[in-house]
Amino acid sequence: MLKRSTAVIALATGLVLPGTVLAEALAFTTTDLNIRTGPGASYQRFGTIQEGDRVVVHGCLTGYNWCDVSWSGERGWVSGNYLAYAGQRYARQPIPSIGVTIGVPVVGFRPDAYHRRYYVDRPWYRDRYLDSREIRRDRRELRDARREMREERRDLFEARRDLRQERRVGSDTSAERRRVRQERQDLREARQNLRRERRD
Fold it and tell me: Distance between CA 189 and CA 58 in Å, rounded?
């Protein structure tokens, strides 16, 4: 039950554990080391860990080239190539060479989940996540408005077409009425002529 709960917690933080055991390792940096918001030089650097500072390694990517660490109240990613084990056994050995042996888990990385958990109070978080969601929402609303406008234009076009059709039908009806009136008038005149002929 404990292993399952630990795995659930790891998944909630954006880390995907392929195994069932979650271990942490104490390490120290072998050089001044940038700590970043993700596993790669393209992610934002927000601090520099001094050479010899202790860090807690929560997990690393496959190959242990990038590791998720805690340091001085911060949580972030550093190059695993510059981390050395601080335990008694395998002391000072590079984390990539002994990570499997000491049980440092291989983890995955989901930027949105990880950043939401650890960086939601950072100034850049809104620009990257919240504002982008608002922009997507505004774009969605704009698309909806344009679609409604197209539908209204289509309805207006159909209404105009129906009106023209009705006017044509109305014109045909008027012509028919005139024709009927003319025929009636011709019939009256014919009757009058017939009566006159009879009188004569």
Answer: 111
